[in-house]
Amino acid sequence: MQGLRQSVSVPANLRFFIVQYQGVVTRDAAADADAVKFLCLPESIASGSFCLHCFWQVTGQTYSFTAGQPMDNLREKLYWRISATVARTLEDLMGSRNGFWNDRKILVTGHTGFKGSWMVTMLSALGCRVTGYALAPNTNPNLFDLLAIDRLLARNEFANIRDSERLKTVVCESEPELIVHMAAQPLVRFGYADPHTTWDTNVMGTVNLLEAARACASVRAVVVVTTDKCYENNGSLWGYREIDRLGGHDPYSASKAASELVVDSYRRSYFSHAGVLVASARGGNVIGGGDWSSDRLIPDAARAVAQGESLQVRNPGSTRPWQHVLDCVDGYLTLARRLLDGETKCATGYNFGPEPSSNITVAELLARVKKAWPELDWRADVSSAGALHEAAFLYLDSNKARRELNWVPKWSIDATVDATAEWYRAVQADPQSAASVTERQLQAFLSHG
Ligand SMILES: NC(=O)c1ccc[n+]([C@@H]2O[C@H](COP(=O)([O-])OP(=O)(O)OC[C@H]3O[C@@H](n4cnc5c(N)ncnc54)[C@H](O)[C@@H]3O)[C@@H](O)[C@H]2O)c1
Questions:
Q1: Spans of all domains in the chain
Q2: Which fold is adopted by the domain 105-287+324-358+393-412+429-446?
Q3: Beta strand 319-324 with 359-361: parallel, antiparallel or unpaired?
Q4: What pTM did the predictor assign?
Q5: What lines the ligand 1 site, CB under 6 Å?
Q6: Would you put residue 342 in left (φ > 0), alpha (ψ -120 to 50) or beta?
Q7: 182 CA to middle of ligand 1, Å?
Q8: Cα–ligand 1 centroid distance for 139 (angstroms)
Q9: What count of other Cβ atoms lies within 10 Å of the Cβ of residue 195?
Q10: How confident is the model at residue 364 (pLDDT cuts 50, 70, 90)?
């Protein structure tokens, strides 16, 4: 990121277009002297993936980047995907050049958690001044402490989202222009065990957050993080879209569907009149280094490896939309940026799921993980399967984010699995390496096209 930021010097009001695609000239490269021109050379199309090399020229200087994307069998989408990748990369560069995120005041709830720690790490790398509001970490080890996240924060508040007065005070005192709300009771099994806390935290916590946002004049945009599980799961083999019915069998899923309704009601009743843009974000099943939550697949795998035990797997046949935490965080920030840019039409709900090729079963995921992490041993635990209802199939359709936000996931399922395995293996061998492996993966992600 730093390298890109320093090397790019582009004129304002930049225009860009593809001049050559697969050897076919699509536009006269000499025309429009002040525009950016791309030469696209996709490779490996036959092998089911392609690598896109782009070269662009600005005022006599040549820059280049390489973007790898998994390719599904929807050939007709290929050209559109390339355009989206190019546009987004350029937008990233422009954003860096203009310092879009630099010095912005942002409040993140849930910053002590798995996603929250990655979110603060990324926002900090982008130059933001972040206030964090969440309970203190409750696992040992935890990513927040391993990365010394408190040192990246302008203010660190260990407090309960159910404490509405304290939340309002912290929001008003820290004067954020953007709030990313991730604090939640996020576990399906805990939800079954303690539905009251789950509903209170996820629904009234969201009410408290939006009330605090209403009370604070600096707030211009809010992103509320819910989940892929907020849709009524009817066993559909198609991906859920934003227009599909909300619902949920278990307390966690239903409470997140309810928090979607809270967001929609507040948006219509209060924020749309006040010019504050509020959106909700529904990510997939997130994996990546640094999660130690209970009853989640990868943390359970990490614990089993550390103890030299075999991982007992409840539902190896369940299919989920697996994605890397950085892709998910990137989706939230892409949406946030549009809101901060004043794009009223983006104040709505968005899915941020992986490519269709990342919708695989638990067994398939573990087989891939084992390739990158041979110490992992697992077996199906038929005795506990089906004890609590869990949907067999869940897939998100994220075309709305692709079309309206130009957002595409950067990492394939293989890159996601490799990064996750690399992280846990490195940190299990040497806990001191957590910061360096996180930083390395963040830089690899940010410099990916
Ligand atoms: N991890 C996933 O696969 C996944 C998938 C979809 C959605 N989500 C959502 O993403 C968000 C972050 O999840 P995560 O995976 O990082 O979980 P996590 O358990 O690692 O983090 C949860 C965060 O919420 C905070 N929190 C919980 N109860 C709180 C309370 N009463 N007051 C204040 N803070 C409280 C915790 O302190 C922590 O910072 C959640 O809203 C979750 O529902 C996660």
A1: 2-98, 105-287+324-358+393-412+429-446
A2: Rossmann fold (3.40.50)
A3: antiparallel
A4: 0.81
A5: 110, 112-116, 134-135, 160-162, 182-186, 201, 225, 227-228, 283, 285-286, 293
A6: left
A7: 6
A8: 13
A9: 16
A10: very high
